[in-house]
Design a protein that fits this description.
By secondary structure, this protein is an alpha/beta fold. The chain folds into four domains: about 5-110, Serine Threonine Protein Phosphatase 5, Tetratricopeptide repeat, CATH 1.25.40; about 150-320, no CATH class; about 330-495 and about 560-630, 3-Layer(aba) Sandwich (Rossmann fold), CATH 3.40.50; about 500-555. It has helices at about 5-10, 15-40, 45-65, 70-90, 95-105, 115-130, 140-145, 150-155, 175-180, 185-195, 200-220, 230-240, 250-265, 275-280, 305-320, 335-345, 365-370, 400-405, 420-430, 470-480, 500-505, 515-530, 545-555, 565-575, 585-595, 605-615; strands at about 325-330, 390-395, 410-415, 440-445, 455-460, 480-490, 575-580, 625-630. The protein is globular, with a radius of gyration of 26 Å.
């Protein structure tokens, strides 16, 4: 029993009204669960009831976990939630919501070998499902790999950079365990789909490519030491992370030698062994090779083909798209030029698989689903839904507008960004997915006032706080909003980023445009501070595992953070009404309601400021806010 529970039981610690309200809510939820379980017993095919039971159990698990009062009960509720949604999926496998709920349960679960054939099939299907974010399965799949019998042997001798610790003389002794862990199909597939944010998996990748390269040096004509399927997944992960991983001077010398040999063969149209290309692709992008075009028609029946597509054909396609992107006016100031150059060099975010959100029939249905407690005045203001127009200001590499396009298919989306490199990536992915309702333009938010269009919804997530004058940019966006139009805005929280900013100051990390070596060395400095902790979740943040992510997270040339009172003042000046936060967990909202029962719609920003002060991790990503124009 924890100290707080002991004092409560002894009557020496007052139970807050929020605790009492939350306890009553939990008791009511348990009663609802009992009722649903009885219904399911009577109607064994009622998959909707199973799904509802899973939702309830999952929220209860989150509440227990966030309050850190009953980990055993949290685990029990999570297992019940997972069991219920799995049963629902067996009965209705085409329901996107059920897949999303399954992954919501799995993302905080730990997997252990052996896993059943059925569980493996379900996880494989989840990885490929368009409504599932691959990143949500990183933690459980990493936990599966770490449950391997070889984990202790390998992890015990690798330092934070993937190097074998001093005193361990025979790296070859690690090879069987390394090969076995990297042969896990779920891990290999996930390495192809997203930036894998896990320190141990990073060490495996670093060791794998170094081992494969060293073997080529000593046995250039011999068989590869790792299977081609492993090398392909490692190469694809290295490309996605933009070759973030550190390398020794010996490694650099070795892969440069390999590069020279591969380029000579390509120039002479001589065959190149596929494993040599795969090893080289673990250290440099293949499109940078002389005569890289000669790879285009090769290896069509080999696992290596996916690497050729990713590292040669797709970059070439993006290069060809640059001349067709229309530009809206001028880039307004030096900061905009610097920020644009920042993302031109490292387009952000890095992504492969796009998440398909819940598909709605139309824009009105989407808004009703997203804002269930808001009177959207459709009858009074029909302009909200007549030929709806959406502006995504700062669209980056297109993930945001592409995901939005599935949520409101009848809307026309205008997506704007400073970076041409980001836009061409976005256009390529949009065409690849067959999406027709997005129009991309290069432009500066400060120059959008010249647009004649007015928009029903304007979204700008993680963009305004990178302007030299964020409020001025917000004013421009506000001027483009239709009467009573909606905004979805994302801004950094000063409270949530306090510890990370303090860490940056401690290490002397300043806003700049660092080269690759600076980013690598800064990560190496941070590693000892992060080992064994989940500080700021930085150790498991995708942004810490790619060059563009690290630049955006640690070295951005322009960044502002805000408090909720400051945001409240800006909303007043802009004539915007706060509607809701998009919260990290449902349990967060339940805890807020228990703490502030007089604010059932959760719209009091003063209350939220108090709540965030007491829970500084709440808005670790940023404040995601739904807003509406007052006029």
């Amino acid at each position: 029993m924890g100290e707080k529970k002991r004092r409560v039981a002894a009557g020496t610690f007052p139970v807050s009204s929020a605790d009492l309200i939350l306890s009553r809510q939990m008791a009511a939820s348990r009663a609802d669960c009992v009722a649903l379980e009885k219904l399911i017993s009577a109607q064994t095919g009622n998959h909707l009831a199973m799904y509802q039971l899973s939702l309830l159990r999952h929220v209860m698990s989150e509440v227990h976990r966030e309050r850190d009062q009953s980990p055993a009960q949290a685990s029990q509720d999570l297992n019940s939630a997972l069991s219920a949604v799995t049963s629902a999926l067996w009965l209705s496998p085409d329901n996107d919501a059920y897949w999303q709920q399954l992954v919501a349960c799995l993302k905080v679960s730990r997997l252990h070998y052996p896993i059943s054939k059925e569980a493996r099939q379900t996880l494989s299907a989840a990885l490929e499902h368009p409504a599932v974010a691959a990143t949500a399965l990183m933690a459980p799949i990493a936990s599966l790999v770490k449950s391997h019998a070889a984990f202790g042997q390998v992890s015990g001798v690798l330092d934070s950079g993937g190097n074998v610790a001093t005193g361990v003389s025979d790296e070859a002794a690690l090879l069987p365990g390394l090969r076995d862990m990297l042969s896990e199909p779920l891990l290999l597939r996930l390495l192809q789909l997203c930036v894998f944010a896990d320190p141990f998996v990073e060490r495996l990748i670093v060791l794998a490519r170094r081992t494969a390269l060293a073997h080529w040096v000593t046995n250039p004509a011999g068989d590869p030491i790792l299977d081609l399927t492993i090398l392909v997944s490692v190469a694809r992960q290295c490309f996605i992370t933009e070759y973030l991983y550190g390398e020794s001077s010996l490694e650099r010398e070795q892969w440069q030698t390999l590069r020279g040999q591969v380029e000579s063969r390509l120039a002479a149209n001589s065959p190149v062994p596929p494993h040599e290309i795969a090893v080289l692709a673990c250290y440099m992008p293949l499109h940078a090779l002389a005569s890289a075009g000669n790879l285009a028609g090769s290896f069509s029946d080999s696992p290596l083909h996916s690497v050729i597509v990713q590292q040669v054909l797709e970059p070439e396609e993006e290069k060809g798209l640059r001349g067709g992107v229309l530009r809206l006016g001028d880039i307004f100031n030096d900061t905009s030029h610097v920020v644009g150059a920042f993302y031109e060099e490292n387009p952000y975010p890095r992504w492969v698989k796009c998440l398909r959100p819940r598909i709605m029939d139309n824009f009105s249905d989407y808004l009703r689903d997203a804002l269930p407690d808001v009177d959207l005045e459709f009858g009074v203001n029909a302009s909200i839904t007549e030929a709806p127009r959406v502006l995504v200001a700062g669209c980056g590499t297109g993930q945001h507008p592409i995901e939005s396009s599935a949520a409101y298919r009848d809307a026309h989306i205008t997506a704007i960004d400073l970076s041409l490199a980001s836009l061409t990536y976005a256009i390529r992915k949009t065409r690849e997915l067959g999406i027709q309702n997005i129009e991309y333009r290069q432009g500066d938010i400060l120059g959008l006032g010249a647009l004649s269009d007015r928009f029903n919804l304007i979204e700008s997530i993680g963009v305004l706080h990178h302007l030299k004058e964020p409020f001025r940019g917000w004013q421009v966006l506000r001027s483009l909003l239709k009467p009573r139009g909606l905004m979805r805005i994302g801004l950094y929280s000063r409270i949530a980023r306090h510890d990370m900013n303090a860490m940056r100051d401690k290490l002397g990390i300043t806003s700049s445009t660092p080269d690759l070596q600076t980013i690598r060395s800064s990560r190496a400095q941070l590693r000892p501070l992060l080992e064994g902790t989940s500080a700021l979740t930085l150790n498991f943040s995708p942004d810490f595992y790619s060059v563009s992510g690290c630049r955006d997270l640690l070295f951005h040339v322009q960044e502002h953070c805000y408090s909720l009172p400051e945001i409240s003042d800006m909303l007043e000046q802009l004539g915007l009404e706060f509607l809701k936060f998009q919260l990290p967990t449902t349990a967060s909202g339940e805890r807020y309601r228990a703490a502030y029962p007089d604010d059932p719609l959760m719209r009091n920003l003063s209350n939220w400021h108090e709540f965030e002060t007491a829970n500084p991790w709440m808005f670790q990503g940023m404040y995601f806010m739904w807003l509406r124009a007052r006029t």
